[in-house]
């Protein structure tokens, strides 16, 4: 892959994805392989909303490549607080860094930012839009555990506002997968994601109850039902318990079922699942570093410079 | 009765734009597109459900002293692809525009996604890609169906 920016999982082909995952696997196999490869390079971390895993894994990835990071800090301590536009902030920061990572609460923010910068820009989450690097590490984890072809994936929780879901659904269309979406009616996939799935010819089914499909699944990708999204608390309370799983629930699943979650979780996966062979979410989080190392290496390398 | 006679039901204009062959019922949407609500003092003639050989019934809009911009024509192409646009100067049609469905519509529609970056105070205009029967925000990906387009018009 040689692209200037990574904004959406919809821009990734199967070959792009495999190139990143293959490079990540090489890094995993020999963590020192890329030591010092990008010595002197600077990555700008621009997080306009809270983040733990994404921010720290990008930070770690860049440092393991020999580079350094600069961090604009919290919105409260930045010029954003003074009313500066995102466009201006990004135009300034591109002069400080060789690449930028942007998280912002508005959908389309990363796309807009690319119109104002020339350095590579990575979308680290734009509102309820996309989160393509999370998807790359999700796919890496899936490939390690069950493969990416001829698999049945269940994605459960807040499908409407879940950016990790939107990215993952798009990326999975590159592979031979069957996608099952499980959510309350009020949190079904948004129209734009449905459109892309339909256009790609993806095999998709929707459910309101996990029981309808659990036994078929190779992967269950759980996301948090976001209480704050419900206009009526009673509506949330009606469905919340329906989308929590514990070890007993998973007895109906295949022994090989892989349970994933982008984290942080609240109560949608009970702690007793952690002790089962199904739990993969912490491994999934750890995979953020080699995958982001691979991606940054490819974005920062000159065209044709293949090590 | 000839077409010309029928068109005379709507008065001739000296300078401006005649938007003809609109599907019946689209005239008010076109006025919304042009941002005409009467407050600007424009002289506007509207024919609704006018008999038409081609469409059985059609709407016509004539706007005095206003020539449509390309961006306005682009949106018109989405909501009324069969329309024709005649630019009139000194009572003569000096230009006939047949409108083609554009690949994108720039700067004239607002995105219905309130959380889209185009609705923030940023130095950008909206841009929608034109799909088969809908439009899509190039920034956030939101889909706007054609029937919703008139409600998203954001023209002065």
Describe this structure in words.
The complex is a heterodimer of chains A (307) and B (156). Chain A is an alpha/beta fold and 307 residues long. Chain A is built from ten helices and ten strands. Chain A is globular, with a radius of gyration of 19 Å. The model of chain A has no long low-confidence stretch (mean pLDDT 94). Chain B has 156 residues and is an alpha+beta fold. Helix content of chain B is 14%, strand content 34%. Chain B has three helices and nine strands. Chain A: Heterooligomer of catalytic and regulatory chains.
Structure summary:
Chain B: Contains catalytic and regulatory chains. By secondary structure, chain A is an alpha/beta fold.
Strand content of chain B: 25-35%
State Rg of chain A. 19 Å
Q: Would you count the extended β strands of chain A for me?
A: 10
Strand content of chain A: 15-25%
Shape call of chain A: globular
Number of helices of chain B: 3
Domain Aspartate carbamoyltransferase regulatory subunit N-terminal (chain B): 8-99
Protein name (chain B): Aspartate carbamoyltransferase regulatory chain
Function (chain B): Involved in allosteric regulation of aspartate carbamoyltransferase.
Domain Aspartate carbamoyltransferase regulatory subunit C-terminal (chain B): 105-149
């Amino acid at each position: 892959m040689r692209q200037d920016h990574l904004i959406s999982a919809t821009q990734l082909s199967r070959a792009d994805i495999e190139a990143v995952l293959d490079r990540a696997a090489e890094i995993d196999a020999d963590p020192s392989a890329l030591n010092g490869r990008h010595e002197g390079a600077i990555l700008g971390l621009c997080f306009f909303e809270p983040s733990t895993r994404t921010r720290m894994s990008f930070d770690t990835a860049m440092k393991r490549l020999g580079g350094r990071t600069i961090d604009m800090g919290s919105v409260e301590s930045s010029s954003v607080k003074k009313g500066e536009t995102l466009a201006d902030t990004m135009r300034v920061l591109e002069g400080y860094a060789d690449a930028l990572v942007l998280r912002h609460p508005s959908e389309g923010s990363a796309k807009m930012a690319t119109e104002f910068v020339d350095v590579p820009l990575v979308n680290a989450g734009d509102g309820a839009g996309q989160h393509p690097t999370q998807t790359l590490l999700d796919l890496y984890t899936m490939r390690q555990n069950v493969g990416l072809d001829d698999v049945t994936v269940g994605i459960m929780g807040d499908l409407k506002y879940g950016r990790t879901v939107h990215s993952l659904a798009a990326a999975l269309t590159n592979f031979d997968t069957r996608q099952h979406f499980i959510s309350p009616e009020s949190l079904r996939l948004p129209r734009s994601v449905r459109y892309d799935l339909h256009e790609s010819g993806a095999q998709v089914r929707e459910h309101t109850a996990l029981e309808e499909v659990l036994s078929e699944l190779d992967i269950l990708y759980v996301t948090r039902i976001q209480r704050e999204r419900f206009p009526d608390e009673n509506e949330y309370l009606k469905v919340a318990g329906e989308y929590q799983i514990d070890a007993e629930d998973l007895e109906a699943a295949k022994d090989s079922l892989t349970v994933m979650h982008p984290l942080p979780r609240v109560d949608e996966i009970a702690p007793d699942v952690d002790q089962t062979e199904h739990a993969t979410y912490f491994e999934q989080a750890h995979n953020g570093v080699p995958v982001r190392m691979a991606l940054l290496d490819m974005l920062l390398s000159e065209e044709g410079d293949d090590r | 009765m000839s077409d010309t006679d029928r068109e005379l039901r709507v008065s001739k204009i000296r300078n401006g734009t005649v938007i003809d062959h609109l599907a019946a019922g689209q005239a008010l949407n076109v006025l919304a597109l042009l941002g005409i609500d009467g407050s600007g003092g424009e002289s506007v003639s509207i024919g609704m459900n006018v008999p038409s050989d081609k469409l059985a019934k059609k709407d016509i809009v004539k706007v005095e002293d206003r020539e449509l911009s390309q961006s306005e024509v682009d949106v018109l192409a989405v909501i009324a692809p069969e329309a024709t646009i005649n630019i009139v100067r000194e009572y003569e049609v000096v230009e006939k525009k047949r409108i083609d469905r554009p690949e994108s519509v720039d700067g004239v529609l607002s995105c219905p996604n309130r959380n889209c970056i185009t609705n923030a105070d940023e130095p950008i205009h909206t841009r929608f890609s034109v799909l088969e029967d809908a439009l899509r925000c190039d920034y956030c990906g939101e889909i706007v169906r054609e029937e919703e387009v008139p409600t998203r018009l954001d023209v002065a």
